[in-house]
Amino acid sequence: MPPDDVVQKLLDAIAAADDDAAETAAQAMANRAELLPALRPLLADADSDRRWWGVRALALVGGPEAARLSEERLADADEAIRCAAALGLGHLRAARAVPALVARLADASGWVRDSAADALALIGEPALAALTDALADPRDAVRVRAAGAVRKIVIPGLSGLRIAAYPPTYRAAIEALYRALNDADRLVRHNAYETLDRLRLFETVWVVEP
Known about the structure:
Elements: H1 3-15, H2 19-27, H3 36-43, H4 48-61, H5 64-72, H6 79-91, H7 98-103, H8 110-123, H9 128-134, H10 140-158, H11 168-180, H12 186-198
Helix pairs in contact: 1-2, 2-4, 3-4, 4-5, 4-6, 5-6, 6-8, 8-10, 9-10, 9-11, 10-11, 10-12, 11-12
């Protein structure tokens, strides 16, 4: 089906307020990078529903250009679109977007902060160094989300490994989590404790540099 026809199906579904049909139309765009030129006008549309579905489609189209366009929408005025952009970047495993997603850990919307943290967790190890740095951020909201994302990356990434086999980025994260046990925020301490406990690191000696 020609690109314009595929996008028109999405536009018709949006106009009819039929989310199921819109999702079906978006799914038909999967892995079709040739649709990007036809999708770009939706991303700048004055109507927030059209922008949201444009961002949703980008996550399905995939590829570097879709990731770049999604990253731009992290600054959208509508929080739902910022959330969709963040989660789309997570599903695309867009490592290039890590700095922009870390910046959204301080978004005015808690919904967006949570979505950015979930996206960083989906990106995984490429996001770990930036998240480790974020554990030292002076803002509680940033540290809480960073600690949660680190937990989601580190536990599956290290479970079953001997400490000597921990990659350097993971070792740095573990050291930051030990320091976070003294964090002023209860949720940061909880995430740090749960991660270290699940990895059974309270049963060994680990020297943490101050």
